[in-house]
Amino acid sequence: MDLFSLPRLGVVVPPENPTAEPEFNRLVGAGTNVYTVRFPVTPGAELRDMLETYNRVLPDVLGDFGSMRLDAAVVACSASHYLLDPDGDRALCDELSESAGYPVASSTQAILALCEALGATRLTLVSPYRPWLTDTSRGFWERAGLTVDDVVLVPAERTPDGGEHYDPYRVTTPEILRRIREHGLPDGSPLLFTGTGMGTLAALSELARGDGTGRPLFSSNLASAWWARRAVGGDTASAHPLLRHLDELAA
Length: 251
Prior knowledge:
Pfam families: Amdase. Helices cover 45% and strands 17% of the residues. By secondary structure, the protein is of the alpha/beta class. It folds into 2 domains: 8-111 and 221-250, Rossmann fold (3-Layer(aba) Sandwich), CATH 3.40.50.12500; 117-219, Rossmann fold (3-Layer(aba) Sandwich), CATH 3.40.50.
């Protein structure tokens, strides 16, 4: 196999995100080469301001790939696109695709494409976000025509005063599983782990083994990898089992 003749996928990620590249590489396997650029650091900015900055500079950041030939690109930051309505998100991705000369999708648009392929009209969200951003996420999916059956919040840790600290990059697999098992899930509702920074592959694999409902289980990164595989092709045999299973469900 000629390494440099493989399909090329570009991924745009927040600067502190430690999760996207490892998960994308595991998911798409050896049949696709993954290249990344990162949003700029925004020292001292509040979360909403930072996310709005990402949306504003996205065309320039995508341009940081320069003249490299890419077959497709994914914007692996769900939170910033939740600030857009679904139509605005789609329009932005269309503009980026036309300018770049290859398909560009946000992780949110990839999730919507996957839901359409699965025939899914309902979701249960597993969210590592602060409550206001979780509510924004829920509103995005509802405006897109999906029913949100339930929300499972997964904070990174409890604070000394008894509160909860939210940080997607620090959520652990045991905490994800504990929160889900304590909360319980609606019967049959597809499960979406939202956010590209929360590591979910181990939790998804564990839940897939123990869930007898056959419900679809996916994350922002898994849905994005599914979309990317459809956009660029690539070797199916080397893809992660979770991705191959989604291919089967969507077929």
